[in-house]
Amino acid sequence: MKKISVISVLLLIVSMMLSVSGLAAEPIKFGAVNPLGDITGYQATRAMELAIKEINEAGGLLGRPVELVVVDDEMRPEIGAAAIDRLATVDNVDFFVGGMGSGVHLAQVPTLKKYEKITVWMGAASHQVELAVGPDADWYFHIHPWDYQQGASYGQGWTDIAARYPE
What we know:
Helix content: 40-55%
CATH class: Alpha Beta
Largest sheet: 5 strands, parallel
Number of strands: 5
Shape: globular
Number of domains: 1
Number of helices: 6
């Protein structure tokens, strides 16, 4: 009986040490879909990789390592849509990030809706994307202004310039 108690205590200590050290922790996986042949997609991916590196050097996220799985969508809707499905089912990512083109993203929306994983998208300004995602998608975060917001902003900017420099 004493042997079982000692072994149990040792196993408990080892498991605690492994979880504290992060060796036993499953990584938090981000799936990024960007057009790597495009300067914006390439630079956005480099920024994501740098952020992941810095997060991991600081101990990870909630004590877990962070991984970035990158897929090049080539700015092609069929590749972008397939990438979301692959990231969810093969790579088992926890979150989706990325995106540039509205056409590609429109093709991705049905698959994103199927999985409803937290999604943070930085491009794809077409309001058609906003309509396709819908108002109740509490898992979807679009951090780039929609086209109608950009239009209003540009219009105000040109109005201000015209008022300031009437000649």
